[in-house]
Amino acid sequence: MKKIFLYGLLFFTAASGLTSCSDDQHTDTRVTNYIVLTINGDAVVYIDADATYEDAGCKAEAAGQDVSDKIVTSNPVDTKAIGPYTVTYKATNEDGFSSAANRTVYVGEPLTGNVATGSHRKTAAGAVTDWSDFNIDMLTDGNGKYWVEDLLGGYYEQRAGYGAAYSMKGFLQVNADNTVDMVGGGDVAGWNDSYSEFKDGKYDPETNTISYCVVYAKMDFNVILTLSK
C-alpha cells in the first residue's frame, strides 16, 4: 500500500512539472510603439558669444501620432561662456522605452588653428617627432579666450587616426602681455587621463599664432597654431 501511494505521488509531481514547463513557453505578444524624435533645424549650430539663443526644438511621433508633448528638453546653452554645448531631447513611451536626440551648439566665433611648422613632440628620452598642417577647430569670445578642440594639435586624433576620443579639448586665455594660460579642460577621454603641465604659452600678434607646450604622458607637445577665420 505504501508503494502504491509513493508511486502515485511521484507521478503527480512529474505531471505537475511538465505542466509548469509548458506554461513557461508562452510568450508576451504585446507591441510597443517607439517614439521617433526629429530635430527641428540643424543638428549643429554656431552662435556668437553674448547673442540670444532660441532653440528650434524637436518633434516626436509614435505610430503616426504626434506625441511632442512627451519631450523633456535639457538645454544647458550659456551664450556668456564660449564652448560646445549639447541640447538633449528625450521622450518615453507608455511602456517605459526611451528615445533621445541631441543638438550641438557652439558658442563663439569659429576659427581654425592650423598646426604650423615647428610643432613637435619630445619624449623623456629626447626623441623628437615633427608634425604640421592639421586643422584644429577653435572658438573665441573676441576677448582673448579660446576653446581649442585639440590642444595636442591633432597628434593622436588626426595624425595617428585614433579619432575624436583621443583629442585634448581645453580653454586658453591670452593675457594683456600676450602670455597664454590654460584655463580649463585638458582631459583625454579615450585614455581617461589628463595633462600634467602647461607652459611657455604665448601669442604673437604679428603672425597671429598661439604657441605653447603641454606636458602629457611624460612627453612635451610643443604646438604652434596659426589662427584664421
How is this structure best described in words?
The chain has 229 residues and is mainly beta. Strands 8, 9, 10, 11, 12, 13, 14, 15, 16, 17 and 18 form an eleven-stranded antiparallel beta sheet that branches. A four-stranded mixed beta sheet has the order 2-7-6-5, with no helix packed on it. A hairpin with a 5-residue loop joins strand 6 and strand 7. The longest helix has 23 residues. 21% of the residues are buried. The N terminus is likely disordered.
What is the topology?
Layout: H1 2-24, E1 36-39, E2 44-47, E3 58-62, E4 65-66, E5 72-74, E6 83-92, E7 98-107, E8 109-115, E9 120-122, E10 128-130, E11 135-140, E12 145-148, H2 155-159, E13 169-174, E14 180-188, E15 193-194, E16 197-204, E17 209-216, E18 219-228
Parallel strand pairs: 2-7
Antiparallel strand pairs: 1-3, 3-4, 5-6, 6-7, 8-11, 8-18, 9-10, 9-18, 11-12, 12-13, 13-14, 14-15, 16-17, 17-18
Poorly predicted tracts of residues: 1-22
Molecular shape: elongated
The overall pLDDT, averaged over residues, is 90
Number of strands: 18
Helix content bin: 10-25%
* Structural Rg: 29 Å
Helix count, DSSP H or I runs of 4 or more residues = 2
Structural class: mainly beta
Please provide the ordered H/E string of secondary-structure elements.
HEEEEEEEEEEEEHEEEEEE
Largest sheet: 11 strands, antiparallel
The fraction of residues in strands falls at: over 45%
* First-last Cα distance: 100 Å
